[in-house]
Amino acid sequence: MSMDLDMPMPIAGAAPTQAVTATILCADCGAPIDGMTAIDAKCYDCFKLTKDISQGIQREATLHFCRDCDRWLQRESTHCSYHRNFAQILTEYPKRTFLFLEQLILKHGAHRDTINIKEAKDGIDFYYSARNQAEKFVDFLTSVVPVRVKKSSELISQDSHTAKKSFKFTFSVELIPICKDDLVALPISFAKQADPSTLQTADISAPVYWRAPFGALAEAKDLVEFIVMDCDLVGPTRGKWVLAEVEVARASDLGTNNKTYWARTHLGGLLHAGDSVMGYMLSGTIFNNPEFEAIEQSHTYSSRIPDVVLVKKHFPNRRRNRKRQWKVKRMAKDEGELLPKKADQERMDREFEQFLQDIEQDEEFRAGVQLYKQPKRQPHPDEMSVATTDDGDEDGPQVNMDELLDDFDELTMEDGE
Fold this sequence. Notes:
Layout: E1 23-25, E2 32-34, H1 44-50, E3 72-73, E4 79-80, E5 87-92, H2 95-108, E6 116-120, E7 123-128, H3 131-144, E8 147-158, E9 165-175, H4 188-191, H5 206-211, E10 224-238, E11 241-250, E12 261-265, E13 276-281, H6 290-297, E14 308-314, E15 326-331, H7 342-361, H8 363-366, E16 372-373, E17 413-416
Parallel strand pairs: 5-9
Antiparallel strand pairs: 1-2, 3-4, 5-7, 6-7, 8-9, 10-11, 10-13, 11-12, 13-14, 15-16, 15-17
Helix pairs in contact: 2-7
């Protein structure tokens, strides 16, 4: 018996459809290329040789590099720093105090490592690329003037893969808020160490001052001109200072009344009858000051408060803003948008003129300043020769020409006359 069995038969699948490409030959080299993607019927290598895809794109530029602060100049005419870390020093200061500090900084080159110096609302910012450079500058400030320093840090960026962090370190440096020739009322604890009526002096260190800081009763702008009527030497001598009792009258009272005041002063060796002297009028003046109120209420010191405190000899015949034979250097600072108003500029000019007068009149003060010879202006060939004189200037202190240095132009400084 035979049986027919259905045996499995293989069924051939449908043949895959292959993509049809249009192959052409390169118009330059004859190489086969895909005609669907080719541009200008050329292969990639031939197309590179004949077409510039970067046409119209600037491939070259001039970059200006500052040799002083190591920064690049952007198109917006501002320098950009490539440093990741920098330290900013905020200096809060009385203007006349900083004028002297500025000269110390220039004399010792303490600003050499700065990448920028910028005027701020309450001071000046000194920028550095490294923390140790800022700390070095702060150490210099601490060594030459009484300051109080506060340190802070701010995280700028952090790499989560390497755990590296970038910080901005800020050193806030506050100068003592007292200027030369200011009137102060010492706390009674300090008054026992110093006595102006006997020429006894005392030094107050910065840590001691900042534990119990005190401000000024009056500033140099409040000085009053007096005329010396009589001067009697009465006491000891300390260097150029001689203790004397002086009778003075306010210059504004002459011809109006005969009111005079007696004052004990250290200027006995400099004053004579008829001289002018600048001082503070305490009689009839109200000071809103806790240290002065404590002296007024003291049984020991209240009777010692004088009517007048004489500060320095005055030369009324000397012209202001006259042409000097010397000048000082100024630091080049970025004023930014903080341009001074007209009233502020006039006040700054007065303070700078007072600073120059202090240099002329005080040899010890002048020792911390480098003075440079004022270059003589070359007259124009067609300019008429006119003789000028400085009437009245010879009676005041003069700067010796031997103290002046030759002026060499420096890129980081400006002239101050």
